[in-house]
């Protein structure tokens, strides 16, 4: 960060030229103290660029579902997730069917709108 050797910085701290707090075997230097020592802001990279990103993780459990209906749901979801254009937000779908219990689990990871659409697809097939 400063391009100084560790011993040089330790000497500055011991001499009182650079304020620091000792924690265990390390020294902690506050941003304000570093700015005062160098005469400039701690780093130009501190400004954080923020952009809104919404992602959904959904787990759907469907009980008392036949193997045929589970297959229909799986085929529909896999087809919908595979038909995405390049540049769109990633969408991940995983399904698991327990034939003994007649239970299906669907895991959907993706954007809010894409996940909502897939959940609507599931609802349409299950309710029909």
Automatic annotation (TrEMBL):
Q: Show the stretches that span the lipid bilayer.
A: none
Molecular function in Gene Ontology: DNA binding
Q: Which UniProt keywords apply?
A: DNA-binding
Q: Which residues form the Helix-turn-helix domain?
A: 1-37
- Classification via InterPro entries: DNA-bd_dom_put_sf, HTH_17, SinI_DNA-bd
Under which name does UniProt file this protein? DNA-binding protein
* Species the sequence originates in: Micromonospora deserti
């Amino acid at each position: 960060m400063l391009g100084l050797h560790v011993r040089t910085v330790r000497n500055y701290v011991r001499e009182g030229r650079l304020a620091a707090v000792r924690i265990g075997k390390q020294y902690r230097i506050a941003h304000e103290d570093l700015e005062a020592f160098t005469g400039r802001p701690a780093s130009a990279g501190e400004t954080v660029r923020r952009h809104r990103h919404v992602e959904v993780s959904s787990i759907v459990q469907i009980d008392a579902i036949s193997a045929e209906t589970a297959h229909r749901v799986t085929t529909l979801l896999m087809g919908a997730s595979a038909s995405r254009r390049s540049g769109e937000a990633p969408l991940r779908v995983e399904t698991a069917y327990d034939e003994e219990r007649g239970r299906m689990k669907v895991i959907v990871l993706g954007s809010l709108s894409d996940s909502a659409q897939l959940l609507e697809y599931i609802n349409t097939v299950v309710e029909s």
